[in-house]
Amino acid sequence: MMNPLVINLQKCSLHDGPGIRSTVFFKGCPLECVWCHNPESQSYTKDVLYNEERCSRCGVCISKCPNDAIYTGETMICLDKDKCTRCGTCIDYCVNNAREIVGKESTIKDIVKEIEKDRMFYEESNGGVTLSGGEVMSQDMDYISQVAKTCQAKGINVAIDTCGYVKFQNFEKVMDHVDLFLYDIKLIDEEKHIKFTGKSNDLVLDNLKKLSERGANISIRIPLIGGVNIDDENLEVKKIIEFLKPLNIKNVHLLPYHSIGKHKYDKLYMKYEGEELFRPSDEKLEEIKKLFEQNNFKTKIGG
Ligand code: SF4
Ligand code: SF4
User: Fold this and answer.
1) Residues 6+ apart with CB under 8 A from 240
2) What is this structure's pTM?
3) Which residue is closest in CA terms to ligand 1's atom 3?
4) Which residues line ligand 2 (CB under 6 A)?
5) Tell me: the pLDDT tens digits for 245-279?
6) Ligand 2 centroid distance, CA of 133 (Å)
């Protein structure tokens, strides 16, 4: 069994399922959504993050890197990602803490121990743990299933936050130990799904149908993004409603686009491709919420 990389274990989370939760963000995702606000969660390997505002351009990292992966660019200290082996030497030598590694192997024992620390908050708020990402369902499923099973055995509510783009066997491995799936639906139009996420939505929609047929407890999460799935006639939203109507699903959360994670792209030497995207107006959000409610979905704006 492989220990996946964990980016962060966020305590007292209020937007990743009911009550107060601890959210574990695993590293690596099969999709590349244009609007992704956690770009550090996309790759399955560690990343070296560069905080330019802390850098004094002393050049120590350049001289210490054993692989000649760092060099001076026109405006910043640059990284040749192909040469970087994530050895961490530059981080050890940077006195300004301008560089950091993202992603840490964590054993099941360590993760569960950390999750358990907030048990009191879960009990008082009907909260629990949310396994998220990146894409938690694309990690080593023996590991994930063991974490979920151990938490469940300790009486901790377990939620899985997923984009659904994995083989269904992965769901089968874990579903007996999961209390709630937070399942993302972005688009029904396949061409647009490929354009904005890099992958077809066949698997995503098919898995959702199967999960629903198996009686899983599911909340749908829909990112609402101007330039992606918002239009005057709400065509894409109406398609999502039609898809969800026959399924055994009652709760829908509408997640308005935000660009909070945009600054992280620079730190990771990545280009943000979502400059044209925008948050729908409050009126539009209310209009879409009403559409869902008219179709008997319990609908909330926000996580
Ligand atoms: S060692 Fe740190 S402060 Fe110096 S150039 Fe490298 S990143 Fe900047
Ligand atoms: S992590 Fe290692 S290989 Fe990568 S840039 Fe830093 S010193 Fe060089």
Assistant:
1) 185, 187, 188, 222, 229
2) 0.94
3) 55
4) 48, 65, 67, 69-70, 79, 84-90
5) 999 999 999 999 998 889 999 999 999 999 999 99
6) 25
